[in-house]
């Protein structure tokens, strides 16, 4: 099977990440997926699970060793948390804010940067799960401001990373998965995880070979920064 049909999904033991893994396997991809602490419920001959806390530098280094010489056609970094339940800055604990920005903004881009040499040149795609709420244009009323701010920081750090990708034509996607029925999105969310996952996988395939940095949702619609 070609490198273009090998994928890595970081943060995949449940919710959107797990749905993406299931969709990739269904579409014939060979997949490496990571989990942090949640017991993994889905197994498949084309799937290999590895443990990873994306905020832990030692575990990120261990993952790189475990991957060996693997080269991936698609990488999706999906790790993220909601952060403090109280979204008022004055009421948020400093430790919780540090964890929020480390998990949602800093660690994902560090992981992406480390993985770039393992992404197939000319055809590879790196997707990082962000949110429409991260945009000053798409979120004019600052809904869920602390979470949104962490994703806005993710977008900017991703933009800085994208400047290193021009020569290889690796596409970098800041992907909004939609409002999804997960533990974070809640049962009243607009779409099911499998709908979001199908869309995210479609975007990973659509942008193969295009290069550049793109801010799009699971339907492929361009979002305003």
Question: Can you tag this structure with a few keywords?
Answer:
225 residues, globular, Rossmann fold, 5 helices
- Name the helicity range: 25-40%
CATH topology: Rossmann fold
Largest sheet: 7 strands, parallel
% residues in beta strands: 15-25%
Adjacency order of strands in the biggest sheet: 3-2-1-4-5-6-7
CATH class bucket: Alpha Beta
- The appropriate CATH architecture is 3-Layer(aba) Sandwich
Q: Which radius of gyration do the C-alpha atoms yield?
A: 16 Å
The span between the termini is 37 Å
Explain what the structure shows:
This protein is an alpha/beta fold and 225 residues long. The chain has one domain (53-217): Rossmann fold (3-Layer(aba) Sandwich). The protein contains five helices and seven strands; from the N terminus they run E-H-E-E-H-E-H-E-H-E-H-E. It has helices at residues 15-26, 57-67, 94-115, 145-162, 193-206; strands spanning 6-10, 30-35, 47-51, 74-77, 125-129, 171-176, 213-217. A seven-stranded parallel sheet has the order 3-2-1-4-5-6-7, with helices on both faces. Strand 5 (125-129), helix 4 and strand 6 form a beta-alpha-beta unit. Helix 1 (15-26) packs across helix 5 and helix 3 runs parallel beside helix 4 (145-162). The longest helix is centred in the middle third of the chain and has 22 residues, at 94-115. The radius of gyration is 16 Å and the shape is globular. The model has no long low-confidence stretch (mean pLDDT 93).
């Amino acid at each position: 099977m070609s490198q273009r049909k090998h994928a890595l999904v970081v943060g995949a033991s449940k919710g959107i990440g797990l749905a993406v893994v299931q969709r990739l396997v269904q579409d014939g991809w060979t997949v490496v997926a990571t989990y942090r602490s949640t017991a993994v419920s889905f197994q498949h001959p084309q799937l290999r699970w590895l443990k990873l806390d994306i905020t832990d530098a030692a575990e990120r280094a261990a993952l790189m060793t475990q991957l060996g010489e693997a080269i991936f056609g698609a990488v999706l970094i999906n790790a993220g948390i909601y952060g403090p339940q109280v979204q008022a800055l004055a009421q948020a604990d400093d430790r919780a804010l540090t964890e929020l920005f480390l998990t949602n903004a800093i660690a994902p881009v560090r992981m992406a940067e480390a993985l770039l040499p393992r992404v197939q040149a000319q055809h590879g795609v790196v997707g990082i799960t962000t949110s429409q709420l991260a945009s000053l244009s798409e979120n004019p009323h600052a809904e869920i401001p602390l979470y949104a701010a962490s994703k806005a920081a993710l977008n900017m750090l991703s933009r800085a990373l994208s400047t290193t990708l021009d020569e290889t034509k690796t596409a970098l996607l800041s992907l909004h998965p939609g409002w999804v029925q997960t533990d974070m999105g809640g049962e009243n969310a607009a779409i099911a995880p499998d709908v979001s996952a199908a869309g995210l996988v479609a975007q990973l395939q659509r942008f193969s070979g295009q290069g550049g940095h793109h801010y799009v949702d699971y339907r492929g619609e361009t979002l305003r920064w």
